[in-house]
Automatic annotation (TrEMBL):
Organism listed in the record: Urbifossiella limnaea
GO MF terms, alphabetically ordered: DNA binding; transposase activity
Superkingdom classification of source: Bacteria
Residues of the Transposase IS4-like domain: 122-307
Pfam families listed in its UniProt record: DDE_Tnp_1 (PF01609), Nterm_IS4 (PF13006)
Residue stretches of biased makeup (Basic residues): 342-351
Location of the region described as Disordered in the Swiss-Prot/TrEMBL record: 324-364
GO biological process, one term: DNA transposition
SUPFAM superfamilies: Ribonuclease H-like
Stated name of the protein: IS4 family transposase
């Protein structure tokens, strides 16, 4: 956020989303409430950490002043902020995120749904961290057989409501951790009435079956190497196939998960993959529920999450110590960033849905 931006609407959104009684309850449950009068009490510290995500371009003392504009008291010294955040620790911030992170779109939110299903996205990215011994120990460094990378790196995986870009679930692990391994607990946060979109990196029977067990539906891109043999052609050009847990199950024709495959091409020379075949997979077997011509346009909504990552208060994939507020202790790095997301999404304008792209007819 630009320093010149009027902070009033952002602070109103913050207090509406996270009222004082919510913070007080979380501090009581986690045992982190202040036990004596302090210059920076625990509740003010929690709100400060969230506000750091709103005012990512400002130093901590200036963020403090925006949260306390009506006081003539001098600002706490820098060491007081560090000590207050160490006292607060990780549990209250994690609990706060878990309570606040949820879908926020309504039936009036443009782009939040398709035919009554709430559009959700699952995607990940990697971020470089400050080169400290604690970060290197907790998150590790990328590298090759010849040398380790210059900076520690984390992998961030997020479940996002695409219409509002609201983060509904988040996993932060060492950069070497695979996204499919991290995705399971986030998938479990889905439920009936949701349509999940994901990229080809998540393709596979275990994760797809786990999505369907939640009652949600799936629309996913299929990698080029995936074997999906047509079992029945449908009038709209799509076809039914089966997704199997293993090659042995495919050979025996057992334990298959029936899916529908939609193939399409696009004819825009300005976009990558012009003329190339793209395959989408869905458990919506009837073209009446998801016409083949609609599927690529709906899938394009996944880019709302890509834009969300681009909006993160970091530059060139770098997470600064100021923004996340690294604490001492395992896993504390990144907690401030996790909790700052609910406040950012609350005050974000409603995004318009992506325009329909020029699509060639699905292949027969």
């Amino acid at each position: 956020m630009c320093m010149a931006t009027d902070p009033t609407p952002f602070l109103r959104g913050l207090y509406h989303l996270i009222p004082p009684d919510r913070i007080a309850h979380i501090l009581d449950v986690t045992g982190r409430q202040s036990r004596r009068v302090r210059r920076i009490p625990a509740d003010a510290t929690a709100r400060l950490v969230v506000a750091l995500g709103l005012f990512a371009d400002l130093p901590v003392p200036q963020v403090w002043r925006r949260l306390h504009p009506g006081t003539d008291d001098p600002d706490p010294v820098s060491s007081a902020f560090c000590q207050a955040r160490d006292r607060l620790g990780v549990p209250p911030l994690r609990r706060l995120f878990e309570e606040v992170a949820r879908p926020m779109g309504t039936h009036q939110t443009v782009g939040a749904g398709y035919r009554g299903w709430r559009l959700m996205g699952l995607d990940g990215t990697t971020l470089d961290l400050p080169d400290t011994p604690d970060n290197a120990r907790v998150f590790g460094r990328p590298g090759t057989a010849r040398a380790a990378g210059a900076f520690p790196q984390l992998r961030l995986l997020a479940l996002c409501e695409l219409g509002t870009r609201a983060i509904c679930g988040l996993s932060i692990k060492p950069g070497r951790r695979g996204e499919q391994v991290m995705a399971g607990p986030l998938v479990d946060r889905l439920g009936p009435g949701m349509l999940l979109l994901w990229d080809r990196g998540f393709f596979g029977y275990p994760l797809a079956e786990r999505v369907l067990r939640t009652g949600a539906h799936l629309l996913a891109r299929v990698p080029a190497h995936a074997i999906l043999t047509p079992t029945r052609r449908l009038p709209d050009g799509s076809y039914l196939a089966a997704l199997y847990p293993s090659p042995a199950d495919r050979a025996a024709g057992r334990r298959g998960l029936e899916v529908r495959v939609i193939e399409y091409t696009h004819d825009d020379p300005g976009r990558p993959g012009c003329g190339a075949r793209t395959r989408l997979l869905t458990d919506l077997l009837s073209p009446d529920d998801l016409p083949a011509a609609d599927a690529p346009v709906v899938y394009h909504e996944r880019w709302e999450q890509e834009k969300n990552q681009a909006d993160c208060p970091s530059s060139r994939g770098w997470v600064s110590a100021r923004r996340t507020g690294y604490h001492r202790g395992d896993g504390a790095a990144g907690t401030g960033r996790v909790v700052s997301r609910p406040a950012r999404r609350r005050t974000r304008r409603t995004r318009m849905s992506a325009p329909a792209r020029r699509l060639a007819p699905p292949r027969a």
